[in-house]
Amino acid sequence: MTRGKAGFWWYLLPGAVAFTAIVAVPFGANLYLSLTKWSGIGDPRWIGLDNYTRLLRDDVFWTSFRNTAAMVIAMVVIPTLIGLVLSATLFDVIGRRFGQKTASFLRATFYLPQVLPVVVAGILWGWLLRPDGAVNAVGRAIGLGEHDWLGDPKTALPMVMLVLIWVQIGYPVVIFMAALQRVDPDLYEAAEIDGAGWFRRFQAITLPQIRPETFVVALTCTIAALKVFGPIWALTRGGPNNATTVPSYFAYNAFFNKLQVGYGAAVATALTLVIVVVSIGFLKVQGRVEES
Amino acid sequence: MTTLTLTRSRVSRKDPDRYKQGTARWVVLALVVLTAALVLVPFLIMVMNAFKSPADYSGNGPLAWPESFQLDGLKNYWQQVHFEGKLLNSIIISGSVAMLGVVLSLLNAYALGVGRVRGRIWITGLFLLANMISQEALVYPLYSMAKSFGLYNSRLSVIIIFTVIQSAFGTYLLASVLGTFPKALLEAAALDGAGRWTTLWRVVVPTVRPTLSVLLIFFFIWTWNEFFIPLVMLIDNSTQTVPLALASLQGDRLMDATTTNAGALISLLPTVVFFLIFQRTLTRGVTVGAVK
Questions:
Q1: CB-closest option in A30, A119, A213 to B290
Q2: Which of A42, A292, B30, B223 is most exposed, with minimal Cβ within 10 Å?
């Protein structure tokens, strides 16, 4: 231990080699490809920034990022808000008045959709929402008629969002409930004795106490929302008419269906840039909030 | 754990006279249970239809209770995709990634957290950055590399890629855990004449074993549920994983409703069983991840 720190470099060697081969080199190669025109066969042809200028004029590219905003609403905003209310209710009301077992059981139920492979969830919902699926059977039974939920450009995106909310909801619930274990019960006691109602306690104690976790949940879910691929692939393949396409699906489609490798590489680079900028922005805001 | 017991005893002592809203709490319970039921409904519909015969399904629709419990759909799906092979592929890939990923994270984190090598903040930052890169920005070069090395459509390609990707997160997490490793233990080991290698395996690993097992479980389940890179890399029956099998069958539009539901059921069973076995470790682990 006392022989200095130089010997520790050896422990980084396998990691350095692995990261160079699997992350750094491919990322550099992707950057290079984004400056070329290539179908995947033969040699890439250098075209400079053409792919990027083409991106800025491509309506589908802008649609994909607009849809990303919808993914953020479905995977971050709504689950975090519902998760806050649910976890506070499970902890403060259910857990204390109906027992920890009831609260844990309900928590596990909300977490269940998080456990399955997301593409399996997508396929299950794809069937539920099919014209001859279960949702329309319910619609017929209560006299609402039927609808091609995923085939109609107007309803496809809201349905995708609904599925993602269903998938995401358990994650904030579990994290927030764990965070609440940390809160001093005396705070709630004192507030209750002072006559503070449930909402007042939620606002004055719960929210400030679990702020660090709220940041972590918001950041990790935002990154997940920017990267979302599996559910789109399983539910709509970006359709109908690109109504539900997202950047990752757009890139995949360019790479492997349209064989526009350079263009796909440009989309993927743009996506990574957005993720890095958003993450750094998040960490900056978090730092400032924690200071004040 | 201590805070938990504390809360419970405190509440039960004061419980009888403290809560005036006797009916309000039942309303809250009913609302939360209703939300939980909504989360469960898709699962129930799936299970119901997984056990129907195709004739029963086409006669009575998706919402009717099965006339008799048929295993045909499940058998059909199992035989059609050779499910035992998919299960084996998923176990080999996820198991290898989990073990290799933890070892790689540990070596990196040992140098960064305990060794405190120069520039460790920058190196940790690079690992964090590697977490943010979207897989789309790596996939095409990785695909070309796999083809030129003869690793395309092999389990090994996916094992190597995910070992590195998962250990980016693992390194980040473990480095901060090992950053607070007790100095006294390291000095004691040094006094006993233990070198770095011995110290790592005899002192550090036994102390952080709980965190390592959480990482192991996470890496396993994350890799099991991965979709995008396996979709690109694994193209035939002999290499595909459990989620891919369902997806590619759906892609071929070969499945009727009962087989779809049976397939979804079989595909999610392993993860649900895994979740039930490791539920406690997982929910604890989600917290470990959240507190940074």
A1: A213
A2: A292
pLDDT in tens, A147-204: 888 888 889 999 999 999 999 999 999 888 888 887 777 887 888 888 887 788 888 8
Alpha-carbon gap: B11 to the closest alpha carbon of chain A (Å): 7
Cα within 13 Å of Cα(A50), Cβ side: 12
Backbone angles phi, psi at B254, to 5 degrees: -95, -5
Q: Does A125 touch chain B (CB under 8 A)?
A: yes
Query: Hey, are the CB atoms on B134 and A226 less than 8 Å from each other?
Result: yes
Rg (CA), chain A: 24
State the number of CA atoms in the 13 A half-sphere of A200 facing the CB.
11
Question: What pLDDT is stored for residue B162 in this prediction?
Answer: 95
pLDDT confidence of residue B252? 63
Q: What is the radius of gyration, based on Cα positions, of chain B?
A: 25
Low-confidence stretches of chain A (pLDDT < 50) are 1-2
**ipTM of this predicted structure:** 0.87
Among B132, B149, B253, B288, most A C-beta atoms within 10 A, so best to mutate, is B132
Q: What is the DSSP string of A242-258?
A: TTT--HHHHHHHHHHTS
Integer CA distances (angstroms), A151 to A131, A142, A243, B54, in order: 9, 22, 10, 25
In sequence order, what are the beta bridge partners of A46?
A: A36
Phi/psi at A47 (5° precision): -130, 15
Which of A232, A230, A213, A233 has the alpha carbon at shortest distance from A221? A213
Q: Chain B residues with CB inside 8 Å of A232's CB?
A: none
For an interface test with A, which of B102, B128, B140, B231 has the most A Cβ atoms less than 10 Å from its Cβ? B140
Q: What is the pLDDT of residue B257?
A: 81
Closest CA to A125 of A257, A254, A235: A235
Confidence of residue B10 (pLDDT cuts 50, 70, 90): very low
CA distance B68 to B51: 8
Chain A contact for B125, CB < 8 A? Answer: no
A33: nearest Cα among A237, A202, A255: A255
A216: closest chain B residue by CA: B290
Residues in chain B with CB shorter than 8 Å from the CB of A133 are: 62, 257
Residue B244 CA: distances (Å) to CA of A123, A130, B2, B253: 11, 21, 44, 14
Mean pLDDT of B34-58: 88
Q: Which residue of B has its CA nearest to A99?
A: B8
What is the rounded distance in angstroms from the CA atom of residue A68 to the CA atom of residue B60?
39
Q: Of B225, B241, B218, nearest to B155 (Cα)?
A: B241
A37 by DSSP, 3-state: which? strand
Name the band, by pLDDT with cuts 50, 70 and 90, for residue B3: very low
Q: How close, in Å, is residue A154 to chain B by CA atoms?
A: 23
Q: Nearest-CA distance from B74 to chain A in Å?
A: 15
Residue B163 has pLDDT above 90, yes or no: yes
Range B190-213 average pLDDT: 88
